[in-house]
Automatic annotation (TrEMBL):
The gene is ispD. The record marks R163, K219 as: Positions MEP for the nucleophilic attack. It comes from the Bacteria. SUPFAM superfamilies: Nucleotide-diphospho-sugar transferases. It catalyses: 2-C-methyl-D-erythritol 4-phosphate + CTP + H(+) = 4-CDP-2-C-methyl-D-erythritol + diphosphate. It comes from Streptomyces triticagri. Its EC number is 2.7.7.60. Catalyzes the formation of 4-diphosphocytidyl-2-C-methyl-D-erythritol from CTP and 2-C-methyl-D-erythritol 4-phosphate (MEP). It holds the Pfam family IspD. GO terms for biological process: isopentenyl diphosphate biosynthetic process, methylerythritol 4-phosphate pathway. Belongs to the IspD/TarI cytidylyltransferase family. IspD subfamily. The keyword Nucleotidyltransferase applies. Keywords: Isoprene biosynthesis, Nucleotidyltransferase, Transferase. This is 2-C-methyl-D-erythritol 4-phosphate cytidylyltransferase.
């Protein structure tokens, strides 16, 4: 069965500051989304990439893909409109998958620099039988759980999880298609939000495994992340 990548790219990028939707902003002269599509198409396993565009930006995204990816190395490309939340956007991407797709990678457009080796490590773990796979890294910072208070006010600490047992998760997250579909259907019914696809699969009681992530798979969230991403690209070009 084929492997497809769904790329949610319909966010506004509020934390990056005012401007074009985040995925369409330029990174060293090329839109972030194009870097992300190339990263997925670079994996030999991926035969289809579904881009989930801002609902008012479907035509713009189609022409960006035409301009930058005259050939995506034989990888098929689809563009569908996204929703108001990441979860809804991912769901729109899943619904566009043709029959014959057995495994799905869900990859944030906001992680444009993920190395192909990380993508392949996720695919490998799926092939080895895991229904859900996430790339992740150990944390540098100790994490505190707090009782959230008013913004700016001191917050009481509730717990300090043992750092060595924590992992910060990245994308692409890989799934057996049926498992991912069931997880999204269950969450849509419950009405609860989720920031992470693997978390939804955990709630269904399916096992999720972690494989090593990569520093360069960091998420471009705030303005400083753009500086880091352009520095990584500059280093790749030398
Ligand atoms: N995303 C999406 N649809 C939404 C919200 C987010 O497809 N309604 C996508 C983003 O485009 C991004 C990924 O989900 O590729 C991860 O989300 P995030 O980094 O939070 O991006 P934004 O939501 O765009 O940023 P912000 O939260 O700062 O507005
Ligand atoms: Mg967001």
């Amino acid at each position: 069965p084929a492997t497809a990548a769904v790329i949610p790219a319909a966010g506004r990028g509020v934390r990056l500051g005012p401007g074009t939707p985040k995925a369409l902003r330029s990174l060293s002269g090329t839109p972030m989304l194009i870097h992300a599509v190339r990263a997925m198409a670079a994996s030999r396993a991926v035969s289809l990439v579904v881009v989930v565009a801002p609902a008012d930006g479907v035509d713009e995204v189609k022409s960006l893909l035409d301009d930058h990816l005259a050939s995506a190395g034989g990888t098929e490309l689809l563009v569908v409109p996204g929703g108001d939340t990441r979860q809804e956007s991912v769901r729109a991407g899943i619904e566009a998958l043709p029959p014959g797709v057995g495994t799905v990678l869900v990859h944030d457009a906001a992680r444009p620099l993920v190395p192909v080796d990380t993508v392949d490590a996720v695919v490998e773990a799926l092939r080895a039988g895991a229904p859900a796979v996430v790339p992740a890294l150990p944390l540098a910072d100790t994490v505190k759980e707090v009782e959230p208070g008013a913004p700016g006010a001191a917050e009481p600490v509730v717990a300090t999880p043992v750092r060595s047992r924590l992992r910060a998760v990245q994308t692409p997250q890989g799934f057996d298609r049926a498992v991912l579909q069931r997880a999204h259907a269950a969450v849509a019914l419950s009405g609860e939000g989720a920031t992470d696809d693997a978390g939804m699969v955990e709630q269904l009681g399916h096992p999720v495994v972690v494989v090593p992530g990569h520093e360069e798979a960091f998420k471009v969230t705030r303005p400083l992340d753009l500086v880091l991403a352009e520095a990584v690209l500059a280093r790749r070009r030398v």
